[in-house]
Known about the structure:
The structure is a single chain. The protein has helices at 80-95, 101-111, 120-138, 145-178, and strands at 9-13, 19-23, 41-49, 60-69. By secondary structure, it is of the alpha+beta class. It has two domains: 9-69, no CATH class; 80-178, no CATH class. Strands 1-2 form a two-stranded antiparallel sheet. Strands 3-4 form a two-stranded antiparallel sheet. Helix 3 runs antiparallel to helix 4 (145-178). The protein starts with 8 loop residues before the first strand and ends with a helix.
Amino acid sequence: MGSMGDWPEMRVLSDTGEKSSWTREVNRREQDALYRVGRHIEIDYVLQKHRGKSSARTPEHKVVLEIRVEPDAEGDVPGAYEKLLAQEIAQRVLTAPILIVGEASYRLAELGRTPGVMSHEVHRVFADARSELESLIGGHQTTNSEERKQFDRKIADLEARWKDKVIAACRKILDEHIS
C-alpha cells in the first residue's frame, strides 16, 4: 500500500532497469491477488498533458488503459488467470454499448484453449466464429472503395449472424463462474 497505507500501488522494474510506481488497477477484488513480486507485467498507458496554467508539478502524467499480469507457473492454479480474463471479456461483451463479435471471439477462442477456462461447448462458439472471421479476412484484398464497402458488409453480416451466439456463450462463462 502506498501513500499513507491507503492506496494500492505496485513498484515495477522495467527491462531497461527503470523503476516506477503505479496504482494497482483491478476490476474485481480477486484480481488483486495477481500482483505478486517477480511477475512480468505489461502496462498500456497514454501520456496526458496538462493545460499550460495547470498547478500540476509535471507537464504530463500517465493514464493507465490496461494492465496485463503474467501468470506465475508455480503459484497459480493452471488456467486461473485465463479464466479471470475470459470472465472479464465476457462481462465487457454483455455491457458494451457496441458489441464487437469478432474481437471478443478471437480473444475468447484463444483463452478457451487452456483447460478449465470454459466448457468445450462455449469454446466451440468462439472458435467457430473466429474461424469464419479468419477465413473472411484471410482471402480479402481491397483495391478500391466499392470492394471495401462489400468487405465491410460481409464483416457486418458475420457479426450479426454470430452476435446472439456469442452473447449466450458469454453469459454461460459468467454463469459457470457463479456456480
